[in-house]
Amino acid sequence: MARVCQLTGKRPITGNTVSHSNIKTKRRFLPNLQKKRYYLAEEDKWITLKLSTEGIRTINKNGLYETVKEMRSKGIKI
């Protein structure tokens, strides 16, 4: 599975590793993804989401059901 947050859409970005002698080599910065299980009480089932830590904070702030409704309206299958 790709390293993409299902809620925020965060993806790996590229940059440079810079050595002491200022030689630059390409590298990737990966998002901090976590696999998280939530119980969706309105539908009486467990869902597993691959979220960045920012996505987890968003769910804590807005609530799981509201966030899932918003994701489904954008076309994300859960």
Overall CATH class: Mainly Beta
The helix content, as a percent range, equals 25-40%
Count of alpha/pi helices: 2
Shape: elongated
Structural domain count: 1
Relative strand content: 35-45%
Q: On the 0-100 scale, what is the average pLDDT?
A: 95
Q: How would you spell out the order of helices and strands? A: EEEEHH
The low-confidence runs, each spanning 5 or more residues with pLDDT under 50, are none
Please identify which CATH superfamily we are dealing with. Answer: Ribosomal protein L28/L24
Nearest-angstrom radius of gyration? 17 Å
Structure overview:
The strands form 2 sheets. This protein has a two-stranded antiparallel sheet with strand order 1-2. It has a two-stranded antiparallel ribbon with strand order 3-4. It has one domain (13-73): Ribosomal protein L28/L24 (Ribosomal Protein L24e, Chain: T). The protein has helices at residues 53-62, 64-73, and strands spanning 13-18, 24-29, 33-40, 45-52. By secondary structure, it is of the alpha+beta class.
